[in-house]
Design brief:
This protein folds into four domains: 126 residues, Immunoglobulin-like (Sandwich), CATH 2.60.40; 303 residues, Transglutaminase-like (Coagulation Factor XIII, Chain A, domain 2, Alpha-Beta Complex), CATH 3.90.260.10; 109 residues, Sandwich (Immunoglobulin-like); 94 residues, Immunoglobulins (Immunoglobulin-like). By secondary structure, the chain is α+β, with helices and mostly antiparallel strands. It has 14 helices and 39 strands. About 2% of the residues have low confidence. Helix content is 16%, strand content 40%. It is elongated. The strands form eleven sheets. The protein has a six-stranded antiparallel beta sheet, sandwiched between helices. A five-stranded mixed beta sheet has the order 2-9-8-4-5. The protein has a five-stranded mixed beta sheet with strand order 33-39-38-35-36, with no helix packed on it. This is protein-glutamine gamma-glutamyltransferase. One of its GO terms (cellular component) is mitochondrion. Belongs to the transglutaminase superfamily. Transglutaminase family. GO terms for molecular function: metal ion binding; protein-glutamine gamma-glutamyltransferase activity.
Length: 693
């Protein structure tokens, strides 16, 4: 048989135009990255026309061991199959591949075979590979989101804002999601490849990767390292010496890269917002619209009875209980259709990667439709009862007396699940999504939902307002960490008789998830309140006292208990007071041009009455520079302004954010953000040069 002269000479995957059309150009300009349900074209260079009666066959392989093999049909079949068409012209064949809107996401190998009429392979070209992602722009994809401005935020925006603090004192921190930074997409697929499911049965796992419900559930389990090769280890109290303290991170990229580089060993340490932010990065990168949510006064109802018992001893100190109320808790919402559930469950789904409870044997939570929470449909998967409790549980405070007797001192049906927040897609401000999770307080619908969820509703009588009773309130300004400040406890007598009572006030330092770090101050006094009068008691909190026990979250919890003579029910009130930290000023003077050096200035003033030692700034920004540490030389005296300068060369054009964090021995988690508009280099058109000469 005569030697066959090769027909295929080269192949061009046309990544520039394909990636632009598929909105993946930010990820990579060289490699081909496409979204499902949307065609893309590659070009075969040929030495001549195809021999007569020969034809092309296309085969796709997925997975390290070819777990899935697909033959691409050469004409349009039903909409749910891969197919291609070809056009020959000028020694080239343009192949247009059409993927179904439910194609498996992953790293594909494409083989183009030239077959003779008797089906034997004459020639093959094997070197084409591409990545396939979810496509929220495609109306047949289950992650389809029909609003371009929302897609610009929930898929394309690499910078975000995460809300923290307390329900009545909400603060925000900037976050670099960086989902299009170098190697992040590859690491997202490594996250999927290292799940327990993938390691147990790689074929079954690969076959399920078309389904965002499956994929998001894997990610929720894999972002934490409990029970698998997950990305982040959680730790909720110091010391963090063998890792990075959770408050130090300013973005997800360094965490993902570190996990990958260390051979999939967990990165230390995360807390809820870090877990949520990393999950948000992975989801946005893979093409599932996602956003970080903060729930204030979040209940962690371990026994699932929708009522949370907080036990205190006679000194108002917490007796270890499993149930806890967190000042805030972060999870993510991801957008998808739920074809696995009954109607009305499409749209935003709660996913919580913070390790708290096992769900089907793994530490994860969700996806759970937000509508199921609002309607109290707790049988809908996944994990609806747990999420429902986080936003709806009642809190009952008990005092356990020395003889072991319990005395109920306060029941609170209104405090859990307040000001549920996310960053607005239209700017750096807060969008309140509480109404997505619950009906208005006291409404008929709320009562119906509670009934459905098996949640008892007691009489809606305001507490402690019966005549003759005292009312207790706690007031405070917005104190700055480092200053002394007053907390005012007011006892109001609404009755017509003079009242005698014992007032106990306790200030303790707590972490954001209610771990007690010690007592700062305590006072107990006898008070007499005249009829229709108010008694004010001032508790002065000194920096020297609270600094010894305050946690890295800078929250002081003040409890006041009033034992009224002649009454058997004491009155209690609790407030959380977050101490604010100074602003970091981030400035980038001058014009920023792609690949040209630009200098940034960062400064802030030490608000503490003591010097700061071991100060370090950390700066990073998607498209600007990877996380970089800049140590401060020497101590920063009280009231002294500290400033540093640093240079970098922007790597990607557009509006970019520069995130900065400052940590030192006595002041940590100071954050700031600056905006950098990176322009492309302007080159003079060619003809202008001609005219000049």
């Amino acid at each position: 048989m005569a030697h066959h002269k090769s027909v295929f000479t080269d192949v061009d995957v046309r990544s520039h135009e394909n990636n632009l059309a598929h909105r993946t150009r930010e990820i990579d300009r060289e490699r081909l990255i496409v979204r499902r349900g949307q065609p893309f074209s590659i070009t075969l260079q040929c030495s001549g026309p195809l021999p007569a009666k020969h034809y092309l066959e296309l085969k796709l392989r997925l997975g390290k061991k070819d777990e899935v093999v697909i033959t691409v049909q050469n004409e349009r079949g039903a909409g749910d199959k891969w197919w291609f068409n070809q056009q020959e012209a000028q020694g080239e064949i343009v192949l247009t591949l059409h993927s179904p809107a439910d194609a498996i996401i992953g790293h594909y190998h494409l083989a183009v075979l030239l077959l003779a009429h008797d089906r034997h392979t004459v020639e093959r070209i094997d070197k084409v590979t591409f990545h396939m992602l979810f496509n929220p722009w495609c109306k047949d994809d289950v992650v389809y989101l029909p609003d371009e401005s929302l897609l610009q935020e929930y898929i394309m925006n690499e910078d975000g804002v995460i809300y923290q603090g307390a329900w009545d004192y909400i603060r925000s921190i900037p976050w670099n999601y960086g989902q299009f930074e170098d190697f992040v997409m590859d690491i997202c697929f490594e996250v999927l490849d290292n799940s327990n499911n993938a390691l147990k049965n790689s074929v079954m796992d690969m076959e399920h990767r078309f389904d965002p419900v499956y994929v998001s559930r894997i990610i929720a389990a894999m972002v934490n390292s409990n029970g698998d090769r997950g990305v982040l280890a959680g730790r909720w109290s110091e010391p963090y010496a063998d890792g990075v303290p959770p408050y130090h991170w300013t973005g997800s990229v360094k965490i993902l890269r570190q996990w990958s580089k260390a051979g999939f060993r967990a990165v230390k340490y995360g807390q809820c917002w870090v877990f949520a932010a990393v999950a948000c990065t992975v989801m946005r990168c893979l093409g599932i619209p996602s956003r970080v949510i903060t729930n204030f006064d979040s209940a962690h109802d371990v026994d699932g009875n929708l009522s949370m018992d907080i036990m205190l001893n006679d000194r108002l100190e917490p007796v270890e209980t499993k149930d806890s109320k967190w000042n805030f808790h972060c999870w993510i919402e991801s957008w998808m259709k739920r074809d696995d559930l009954s109607k009305g469950c499409d749209g935003w789904q709660v996913l919580d990667p913070t390790p708290q409870e096992r769900s089907e044997g793994e530490f994860r939570c969700g996806p759970c439709p937000v509508t199921a929470i609002k309607e109290g449909k707790l049988d809908l998967k996944y994990d609806a009862p747990f999420v429902f409790a986080e936003v709806n549980a009642d809190i009952v405070y008990w005092v356990v007396q020395r003889d072991g007797q319990r005395r109920k001192i306060k029941e609170d049906q209104k405090s859990v699940g307040k000001n549920i927040s996310t960053k607005s897609p239209y700017g750096n401000y807060r969008e309140d999504v509480t109404s997505h999770y619950k009906y208005p307080e006291g409404s008929r619908e709320e009562r119906e939902v509670y009934g459905k969820a098996g949640h008892r509703v007691t009489g809606a009588v305001e507490e402690n307002t019966e005549p003759g009773q005292l009312q207790l309130s706690i007031k405070h300004a917005k104190p700055v960490f480092g200053t002394d400040f007053d907390v005012i406890v007011e006892v109001k007598n609404t009755g017509s008789k003079e009242a005698h009572a014992q007032l106990t006030m306790v200030a303790t330092a707590v972490t954001y998830n209610s771990i007690h770090r010690g007592e700062c101050q305590r006072e107990s006094i006898n008070v007499t309140v005249q009829a229709h009068k108010v008694h004010k008691q001032v508790l002065r909190l000194h920096y020297d006292h609270y600094v010894k026990c305050v946690s890295e979250h800078h929250v002081i919890r003040v409890k006041a208990l009033l034992d009224v003579l002649g009454e058997n029910e004491p009155i209690m009130n609790v407030v959380n007071i977050p101490l604010s930290k100074p602003e970091l000023l981030v400035e980038v003077p001058g014009m920023a041009v792609l690949w040209e050096k630009v200098t940034a200035h960062v400064s802030f003033t030490n608000p503490l009455p003591v010097p700061l030692k071991g100060g370090v700034f950390t700066v990073e920004g998607a498209g600007l520079l990877p996380a970089t540490e800049i140590p401060v030389i020497g101590d920063v005296a009280p009231g002294q302004k500290v400033s540093v300068k640093f240079s970098f060369s922007p790597m990607r054009a557009g509006v970019r954010k520069l995130m900065v964090d400052f940590d030192s021995d006595r002041l940590k988690d100071v954050k700031g953000v600056g905006t950098v508009v990176v322009r492309k280099k302007y080159t003079r058109p060619f003809y202008e040069n001609l005219i000049m000469y």
